[in-house]
Specification:
Blueprint: E1 5-7, E2 15-19, H1 26-36, E3 42-46, H2 57-70, E4 72-75, H3 79-89, H4 96-110, H5 114-122, H6 132-142, H7 144-152, E5 156-158, E6 162-165, H8 174-177, H9 183-186, E7 201-204, E8 222-224, E9 229-231, E10 244-249, E11 258-262, E12 267-270, E13 284-285, E14 293-296, E15 301-306, E16 309-314, E17 318-321, E18 324-327, E19 330-331, E20 342-348, E21 353-357, E22 360-364, E23 368-370
Helix pairs in contact: 3-7
Length: 376
């Protein structure tokens, strides 16, 4: 698919709501828009990756389609959206085994895939024996509206002060990018650390902001006012503790903003104080730099060496990756906590609770009570 650019003038005196990487979490999108009191007086920009890596991909596509009919909404193409559209329309050849493997892996990892949901709705549950080449014409006919909607999503949204694109752009000369292969702009890995800067703000998703964390893991958007870059992706669906980030500008000219988040995790209420450890002394193991050396293995937690530093990590987070002992998505950071604080519970161990507070994950070792309701 070639790059397409949609150029619009955002209205004055209307809130601009920005979100990315919903990844099949329709209930999360409903919850966070409800919390924001999203209305016809607002503008919503969805910066790609509506589907996969979550349990409600088909519902998410239909929800966004309905929002577009009723409100001012600008959804953009993401790399995952493009992959699925290309499969359904056979744009890059009929790689049935690869698609089947992806669908079943997604079902195992995230509980669903777009293809599974489509097949279930058709009354033809997807199995390893399914002949996808024979199934696909029926899927295309039944879900033509949803597939066409994915294919219609633009690559770039250009506005007065902001350029929105799922992955990133190498420069701001959009006329030169228009008509080129869209994929490099949708899957521009680690765009924030590419050393680029722009006259307009470039607003992206795709690369979870937590991967830019050097010490303790933080999932909120990155807003770089000097280089004019905003990164939204809170790793919703990609990681257990990931979240949707909804960044809200009171007006397109405004430098101020507010942030709403949703993670769908169960909540606990802290009963004890915890001073927390110094942030600058903490260490975080992300999935793109995860090799460790095992020092001592325990049933619940283990000691590992990470870049020369001993760390205590959940044993269940240790795995073998292509012959390399690895551990991901954990930290030795201890959160500062006060009695009454609400914490998102990621992992409960006798050792302590791995939790998230104010978009930062870390350890809490005190007493707590379980909340009956997880507020959006």
């Amino acid at each position: 698919m070639n790059t397409t650019v949609r150029r619009v003038s955002l209205p004055d005196q209307k809130r601009i709501l920005m979100i990315s990487d919903i990844h099949g979490h329709a209930d999360g999108l409903r919850a966070i828009l409800g919390k924001a009191r999203f209305s016809k007086d607002d503008v919503l920009v969805i910066v790609g990756d509506l589907i996969e890596k979550g349990p409600q991909s088909l519902d998410t596509v239909r929800l966004v389609m309905r929002l577009c009919r009723t409100y001012t909404v600008y959804p953009l193409m993401g790399n995952v959206d493009l992959w699925r559209w290309e499969f359904f329309t056979e744009q890059r050849g009929a790689d049935w085994p690869r698609m089947a493997d992806y669908a079943f892996n997604a079902k195992g990892w995230w509980g669903s895939s777009l293809l599974h949901e489509m097949c279930d709705e058709m009354g033809e549950p997807l199995t390893r024996e399914t002949k996808i080449d024979e199934l696909l014409p029926r899927v295309r006919e039944r879900f033509r509206a949803e597939i066409d909607f994915l294919g219609s999503l633009p690559t770039i949204l250009d506005t007065q002060r902001m350029i929105f694109v799922h992955g990133g752009i190498p420069h701001e000369r959009l006329d030169e990018l228009e008509g080129t292969d869209a994929f490099p702009l949708l899957k521009f890995d680690d765009f924030y650390n590419a050393g680029l800067s722009f006259p307009k703000y470039v607003v992206t998703g795709h690369w979870p902001t937590v991967l830019c964390s050097k010490t303790y893991p933080i999932y909120e958007p990155i807003i770089d006012r000097k280089r004019h870059i905003i990164c939204l992706d809170g790793a919703c669906g990609v990681k257990t503790e990931g979240q949707l980030n909804l960044l809200i500008l009171p007006d397109w000219r405004s430098d101020g903003y507010s942030l709403l988040t949703w993670d769908g995790l169960p909540l606990i209420t802290a009963l004890d104080s915890q001073a927390g450890s110094p942030k600058e002394e903490a260490r975080y193991i992300p999935w793109n730099d995860h090799a460790v050396e095992l020092l001592e293995k325990g049933e619940e937690v283990s000691r590992v060496l990470y870049h020369g530093r001993p760390m205590t990590v959940p044993t269940q987070y240790i795995f073998n990756h292509n012959g390399v002992l690895s551990c991901i998505d954990t930290t030795d950071y201890e959160l500062p906590v006060e009695p009454g604080d609400s914490l998102s519970l990621i992992l409960k161990l006798n050792y302590g609770c791995f939790v998230k507070k104010n978009n930062v994950s870390g350890w809490y070792f005190g007493r707590y009570k379980t909340n009956e309701v997880n507020e959006p």
